[in-house]
Amino acid sequence: MQFTRLLSALVLMLGILVHTVGSNAQTVDDGTLGLLIQALAGENFDDTTRAVSDLVKSGDPRASSILNALSAGDLYVAKAGKTVFIGKRDGSDYAAIDPITGSKLAPVPRSAAEKIKVNNRLRRDIAAAIGGLTLMSDKADERRSAAEAILKTRDPESIPLLDKAIAAEKDASIKLLMNQAKAAAVLNSGATGEVKIAAIAEVSAGNSRDALGLLTPLAGVEGPVGEAARAAIDSINSKLALWNGIQNIVYGLSLGSVLLLAAIGLAITFGVMGVINMAHGEMVMIGAYTTFVVQQIIRTSAPGLFDYSLLIALPAAFLASGAIGVVIERSVIRFLYGRPLETLLATWGISLVLQQAIRSWFGASNVQVGNPSWMAGSFDLGLLTLTWSRLWIIVFALAVFAILQLLLKKTMLGLRMRAVTQNRRMASSMGIRTPWVDALTFGLGSGIAGIAGVALSQIDNVSPNLGQGYIIDSFMVVVFGGVGNLWGTLVGAMSLGIANKFLEPFAGAVLGKILVLVLIILFIQKRPRGLFALKGRAIEA
Question: pTM of the entire structure?
Answer without folding.
Answer: 0.64
